[in-house]
Amino acid sequence: MAPKSPALGSLAVQAPSLAPKTVHVSPSTCHDMSLFKDLMKEYRKLDDTITMRLNRTTAQFRDRDRSGLGTGNVEDQACAYMWRELTENWKRRTDIIQYCVDVVDKSMQEKQSVLQTQDVDPSTQRRIQGELYTEEVKRNMVHNELTVEKIVRNRSLDAFRSRCKYFEPPHSDPESRQWWDRARDGK
φ and ψ at 25, to 5 degrees? Predict the structure, then answer.
């Protein structure tokens, strides 16, 4: 009996990850910059491997087509599938970043309001000013993630467009169209 032919792609990509983990982002996640950065790094893996993923997805759709299970143009199907994955991932990351921006901003506002009360003793005032400085650093770091996100999306979009030159999301999918327009406009 002939050995079964190996599946295409690298084992790292093929091996199903353990059951998808649901990450519950809480205010403490936003305040722990190391954890927050690790979370963003994990979510950006799809963007980091987009060319390999496009190759693998195209190969999978081509195999389906050869076995008679595919319908339509293989490249179009692969591009549509990858676009959906990309935009879902972009949305999740944007939601997390925006949530953390709101959490850190609120924390700063609370500390500023405490500082503005007249009945704060000097030692408490110094402690709160130190905490406020720390919050401001966190705030800047979290806000910088919005800029990083734009750069990552633009880079992914360039790689996507190099392979899917004629792809455009369907007009029947307004959310996907919105991501397409935002990415095209560099937002």
Answer: -90, 125
